[in-house]
Specification:
The protein has five helices and no strands. It has 99 residues and is mainly alpha-helical. The protein is elongated.
């Protein structure tokens, strides 16, 4: 495995594990990782499909299910390569007034 692929897997693992635990992930980490994914594809280290499959494996290890279960079978239409579906869970919102 290429060093770039190893680094990507580590970053995906870090992001998805944090999100699965209820923590947030900095936009910088996500954006830099997306840039690394694009670089890996441009340098022919891996194909976009192979990178997304590897990312999905990391997601599955963190959440116990595939990305498609959370975002639908067409998740790649909403998150085209090299976007990473890494978002914190929505915080509960309670009204502060009776209005």
């Amino acid at each position: 495995m290429h060093a770039l692929e190893t680094e990507l897997e580590q970053r995906w693992h870090t992001m998805f594990a944090a999100l699965a635990a209820g923590d947030d992930v900095s936009p910088g980490l996500r954006l830099r990782t997306e840039g690394m994914m694009e670089a890996a594809a441009l340098l022919d280290v891996a194909t976009p499909d192979a990178l997304q499959a590897s990312m999905n494996s990391c997601y599955q290890r963190a959440y116990g299910h595939a990305i498609a279960e959370d975002f639908g079978a067409d998740w790649q239409a909403f998150f085209p390569f090299p976007q990473i579906p890494a978002m914190a869970k929505r915080a509960p919102v309670y009204p502060s007034t009776k209005d």
